[in-house]
Amino acid sequence: MEMICIQEDAYFELLKKTYEYIKSLHNITEEKWILPEKAMEMLGVKTTKLQELRDSGEIEISQPSRKVILYNIESIREYLNRHARKS
């Protein structure tokens, strides 16, 4: 059995490229699952708050592997709409 070791940054870059390749292969234009960086950007939060929202069930996630957590973009939009108010 052979083992390949790569740096964490390289791993996540490979994951992003794989994700983009699969999207293009199936002509997916609207993203359903997004990476944590984009989720934090949409919500305007940092890692700790994102984890809190995930753990409380406020936003939906998918965890295809131990270190990879993807966020449902629609559940993030619903969360933002639930907390919207007019000033």
Q: How would you describe the overall organization of this protein?
A:
With 87 residues, the protein is α+β, with helices and mostly antiparallel strands. The chain has helices at 8-25, 36-43, 47-56, 73-82, and strands at residues 33-34, 61-65, 68-72. A three-stranded antiparallel beta sheet has the order 1-3-2.
Distance N to C terminus: 62 Å
Structural classification: alpha+beta
Give the neighbour order of strands across the main sheet. Answer: 1-3-2
Largest sheet: 3 strands, antiparallel
Write a short abstract of this structure.
The protein has 87 residues and is an alpha+beta fold. The chain has a domain at 29-87.
Pick out its properties.
87 residues, alpha+beta, three-stranded antiparallel beta sheet, 4 helices, 14% strand
